[in-house]
Amino acid sequence: MKVSTTWHGKRAFTSEGPSGYSVGMDATAAYGGDGKGMTPMELLLAGLAGCIGIDITMILDRFLSDITRIDIDAEGTRKEEMPKGFTAIDLTFHVDGDVPDYRVWKAIQMGKEKYCAVSDSLKAEIRMHLILNGTEVPHPA
After folding, report:
1. Would you list the domain boundaries of the chain?
2. Architecture of the domain whose range is 40-137
3. Phi-psi region of 33 (alpha: psi -120 to 50; beta: other; left: phi over 0)
4. Nearest in space to 69 (alpha carbons), one of 59, 80, 81, 56
5. pTM of the model
6. N or C terminus of the chain: which is more exposed, having fewer CB within 10 Å?
7. Residues contacting 31, CB < 8 A, separation 6+
8. What phi-psi label fits residue 69: left (phi over 0), alpha (psi between -120 and 50 degrees) or beta?
């Protein structure tokens, strides 16, 4: 999967993926942005909640006609020092409907541990590459 991200000046970027949809990102004023899009850290939380949410609906598919609400709140606790990555993420699932609690818990657990590519990717190795003025520049040793 490849996502292309384009700079629009200051701290604003737009990313587009193979789905054809795009999302705007910007930094808050505290980081020199204009706040004209979600921050990348907000998008990370949204991606995690959306991924597990999709998994839950797939796992609970036969109960969906009895479920009237699935809302997911994602709250990340960040480090004080740079880089201010998440040290913990709390997901709160608000589910209404005629579905046994143990089935919802099982779906949440399976989504997080077995199916959600986002939660699994939070452990991924990140490799960097640089192409400067059209020429690939190797990472300094």
Report:
1. 1-38, 40-137
2. 2-Layer Sandwich (3.30)
3. beta
4. 56
5. 0.89
6. C
7. 11
8. beta
